[in-house]
Design goal:
Distance between the termini: 27 Å
Number of helices: 4
CATH superfamily: Gcn5-related N-acetyltransferase (GNAT)
Number of domains: 1
Largest sheet: 7 strands, mixed
CATH topology: Aminopeptidase
Oligomer: single chain
Structural class: alpha+beta
CATH class: Alpha Beta
Radius of gyration: 15 Å
CATH architecture: 3-Layer(aba) Sandwich
Number of strands: 9
Shape: globular
Strand content: 25-35%
Strand order of the largest sheet: 1-4-5-6-7-9-8
Order of helices and strands: EHHEEEEEHEHEE
Helix content: 10-25%
């Protein structure tokens, strides 16, 4: 397995991967193209994939550099709680790991790769929205272990996303916890 920057020609495979991993149509193909563009700054990619020797994707870390994003999957943000200006904050959009390789440390490796790249351009903080109802609270536990601190809670955060949630169907009534990691 290897971690490499996201390529534009990965998007079709990522669409299939995310449909299976988080829920059908969580990302549309058009939205994935937007994610790709938000991940790119000055021809440098800030999002990464985990691939095997044949190029099959087993993991994805969508990460946006400061100034390339204005919101997460939902639109609820509390930048007044971050202690850094939004134009100095990166954003972790999503981290998905195939069940086949979960528990192998690939999530932290993908995230650390993105953090190293974000630090290179002087990013002061990373903001994200954690899935409160994730199995065994894995999303918040993972991010807390990685140094993120909660700053706000957003009930029904994904309600306006037109997809079938793996937890409660459609519409999604899950809660997001807005979290910040200072670099």
């Amino acid at each position: 397995m290897q971690i490499r920057p996201l390529h534009l020609d990965d998007l079709a495979q990522i669409k299939t991967f995310t449909d299976a991993t988080i829920g059908e149509n969580y990302f549309t193909y058009e939205e994935l193209k937007e994610c790709y563009q938000k991940s790119l700054l000055n021809n440098v990619m800030y999002s990464f994939v985990l691939v095997d020797e044949h190029g099959k994707i087993y993991g994805l870390r969508l990460s946006y550099p400061p100034g390339a994003w204005s919101k997460g999957k939902g639109s609820k943000l509390h930048p007044e709680l971050w202690n850094v200006p939004q134009d100095k904050a990166g954003y972790f959009q999503s981290l998905f790991i195939s069940p086949e390789v979960q528990g192998g440390g690939w999530g932290p490796k993908l995230s650390e790769t993105a953090i190293v790249r974000l630090k290179e351009i002087g990013t002061q903080a990373i903001v994200t929205h954690a899935w409160q109802e994730s199995p065994n609270n894995s999303s918040i536990r993972y991010l807390t272990k990685f140094g993120f601190k909660p700053v706000a809670t957003h009930p029904n955060y994904w309600m306006d996303v037109d997809y079938v949630c793996t937890r409660d169907g459609k519409p999604c009534r899950c809660t997001a916890v807005e979290m910040v990691k200072y670099l």
